[in-house]
Amino acid sequence: GTGGQGDGGDGEEAEPEGMFKAPKDSKRKVRDYLRLAPLWLALVVLASVGVLLWYFLGYKAEVTVSQVYSGSLRVLNRHFSQDLARRESSAFRSETAKAQRMLKELIASTRLGPYYNSSSVYSFGEGPLTCFFWFILQIPEHRRPMLSPEVVRALLAEEIQSTANGSAPAPYRADYEVDPEGLVILGVRGPVPLPPPGCYRYSYVGQGQVQRLKGPDHLVSSCLWHLQGPKDLMLKLRLEWTLAECRDRLAMYDVAGPLERRLITSVYGCSRQEPVVEVLASGAVMAVVWKKGLHSYYDPFVLSVQPVAFQACEVNLTLEGRLEPQGVLSTPYFPSYYSPSTHCSWHLMVPSLDYGLALWFDAYALRRQRYDLPCTQGQWTIQNRRYPPPGAPFLSPQSPAWGAHVPDLRGAAQEEGTGHRPGY
Q: Which portions of the sequence form the region Disordered (predicted)?
């Protein structure tokens, strides 16, 4: 009995120990957690700082931008054909597929390859086949200044030149013999300045025709017209604004694509001062690019094109002994804009040494984009002297007239231009 009581007593004494043991353990665990809280907090802070450092120093450094380049390249073992001027032809589709593959492989062969995003060959030009294209490089933002159009052109031209001189075959040379001297690369600001496939307009205009061109697609932001005429004639484009106000821009080029070096002129915003503009190309090929303004309009302008014959501007004029205007000189197809590379020579003779010669320029202007840049839109040379002289103020568009006196028996005047304002 005693043993049983002892066992039972022991059991009775052990029961309270079991009842109070769990709460003590819970308090102990809570105290342990509290002691570890600063450590956990420190770990969370360190992880947060690590994430922030990765974001600002790592991720941010790898933010990329889309850089758009446009240009052209010349292929020596291919020649332009009429089929390549028709976008719907099988020849055009086949040639663009091969040309785009060549362009992609060329870029991939240089250190630009990792940045390649996309490209498109959208048009072809005459002579040795000229391919007009654009491509996009996806580059880290901090590297953008190091990949200027000049640097990109140098890298591509160096690659073309090295494979031309080497014996190892290059994938992009399988079908094309690319001319490094015929490579042009231009940088593009903003969105791609070329039309989507639905707004590429090709027109062939025959001799004696005046063809009205289909207007732009108002649902897109830009369109390109590729114009072609008979081989021995030059194209004359007529632009007529149909609205009083707009912000649309049109640029005309002396080649099948929008190459800035071959820009004839550009017009902007439904000009009230110039509601009708006529522009001449130097030959049978021309491109017109439209960029939509802030708003969409249906046909804010009308374009028409016709082939015209080359017009010489070589004049020999003998003046009489009368102190009054005796002749009018003008650029070809005045009041149209003269074509690029226009060169006019007028040889004037006065009756005797008692007479000089005065030339008056009515509402005519020659001006630079900036005074520290050369004048690219034309110049006058009178008696082997350029007017206005270098460093002199250029004429403003508001100047009603400007005269030059040539104190000699004979005066020879020449005008050279790249296709800007008409001379009169």
A: 1-23
Select the more confidently predicted residue: 264 or 360.
264
Report residue 408 as tokens: 């000699």
Pairing of strands 301-308, 234-241: antiparallel
> Do 231 and 307 touch, CB atoms closer than 8 A?
no
Pick the range with the lowest mean pLDDT from 41-50, 141-150, 167-176, 310-319: 41-50
- Range in 2-16, 94-108, 325-339, 364-378 with the lowest mean pLDDT: 2-16
Which residues partner with 125 through β-bridges?
130
Taking only the tens place, the pLDDT of each residue in 338-353 is: 888 788 888 888 888 8
**Strand 314-318 to 342-349 pairing:** parallel
What pLDDT digit, counting tens, does each position of 294-312 carry? 777 777 899 999 999 998 8
- Is residue 109 within 8 A of residue 239, CB to CB? The reply is no
Helix axes 90-108 and 149-165, enclosed angle (nearest 10): 90
Q: How far apart are CA 86 and CA 256, in angstroms?
A: 13
| Planar angle of CA 160, 165, 169, nearest 5 degrees | 70
Contact 64, 140 (CB under 8 A): yes
- Residue 269 gets the label, from left (phi > 0), alpha (psi -120 to 50) or beta, of left
The amino acid that residue 183 corresponds to is L
> Closest Cα partner for 362 from 329, 314, 320, 410?
329
Beta carbons of 338 and 422 less than 8 angstroms apart: yes
Q: What's the CA dihedral at 190, 193, 199, 204 to 10 degrees?
A: 170
In angstroms, rounded to a whole number, what is the distance separating the alpha carbons of residues 263 and 255?
8
**Is-contact 364 424, C-beta < 8 A?**
yes
Nearest to 287 by CA among 259, 263, 252, 261: 252
